[in-house]
Design brief:
- The structure is a single chain.
- By secondary structure, the chain is of the alpha+beta class.
- The protein folds into two domains: 6-115, N-terminal domain of MutM-like DNA repair proteins, CATH 3.20.190; 129-253, Helicase, Ruva Protein, domain 3 (Orthogonal Bundle).
- The protein contains four helices and eleven strands; from the N terminus they run βββββββββααααββ.
- The chain has helices spanning 129-136, 143-147, 158-168, 181-200, and strands spanning 7-8, 12-14, 17-23, 36-41, 46-52, 62-68, 75-81, 87-95, 110-112, 242-246, 249-253.
- The strands form three sheets. Strands 1, 2, 3, 4, 8 and 9 form a six-stranded antiparallel sheet that branches.
- Helix 1 (129-136) crosses helix 4 and helix 3 (158-168) packs across helix 4 (181-200).
- It is globular.
């Protein structure tokens, strides 16, 4: 697809997907709805870097470079991906089934085709809490696996799943059906609290690779209560934080205050 001369309409997010609706110059300000988007998934190590004026030489991990013009001057956007698990692709969009905005950042009721199967983001104002809680409580999978399932609710990564489960006092391997509706609602609220705080602090950066578009590191790692604290005392009860690999992911919890089987799940 030709990108030269296209107008970037917005930057939209759903879960771990980003996309930029593309408009022709003559369609800007009209009722015409963009049908194409430049969509991206950052994988494990992908990132965008934005430079004003003359950009530096492309980094060795730069996979694509976009040159933008605006009333505020020229900008360059680099897509970097060290592990090459991410992607950047131009693709068609399709209407959302509920007619609501496709994601955070734009009122456009459309999503790229590769994003259509992804559930709404936990921080999406259009997210249906009743539906999410119902989906969260299905089956015998451990509740952490459910949180990481992007078809149930999107945007929750490994670190923030551990932190939300710690905040809600729920063992990560408690079977989903053993989580009561009030517990599931409290867990969803904890997810939102943790993710909102993390976003305000630029995320969790453990090395120089994880930075924002301006090259700045996040500092939420200073507030982690469970993740990465194996063997350290729980800040709530003093128990020792445990770690186990579950589904190939490191999982952290406090055995003392996050019991695998809590009170019997109620129907409330």
């Amino acid at each position: 697809m030709r990108l030269q001369g296209m107008v970037l309409d917005a930057v939209v997010r759903r879960g771990k997907f980003l996309w930029i609706p593309l408009a022709e110059v003559e369609d800007v300000g009209s009722a015409h709805t963009p049908t194409m988007a430049l969509s991206a998934h950052l994988g494990m190590s992908g990132q965008f870097r934005v430079f004003e004026g003359d950009p530096p030489e492309p980094h060795s991990h730069c996979r694509a470079r976009l040159h933008l013009e605006s009333p505020h001057g020229a900008r360059t956007v680099d897509f970097l991906d060290q592990r090459t698990f991410g992607y950047l692709v131009a693709e068609q969009m399709q209407p959302t089934p509920d007619g609501l905005a496709g994601g955070k950042g734009s009122p456009l009721p459309a999503v790229p085709r590769t994003v259509a199967h992804i559930a709404r983001d936990a921080l999406d104002p259009a997210a249906d809490d009743v539906h999410i809680v119902s989906r969260m409580r299905r089956g015998s999978r451990g509740i952490k696996q459910v949180l990481l399932d992007q078809t149930v609710v999107s945007g929750i990564g490994n670190i923030y799943a551990d932190e939300a489960l710690w905040a809600a006092r729920i063992h990560p391997q408690r079977p989903a059906r053993a989580v009561s509706p009030p517990q599931a609602r409290a867990l969803l609220a904890a997810v939102r609290t943790v993710m909102t705080r993390a976003l305000a602090q630029g995320g969790t950066s453990f090395d120089a690779l994880y930075v924002n578009v301006n090259g700045e590191s996040g500092y939420f790692s200073r507030e982690l209560a469970a993740y990465g604290r194996t063997g350290q005392p729980c800040e709530r009860c003093g128990g020792r934080i445990s770690m186990e690999r579950v589904g190939g992911r490191s999982t952290h919890w406090c055995p003392r205050c996050q019991r695998r089987y809590g009170p019997r799940a109620s129907r409330d």
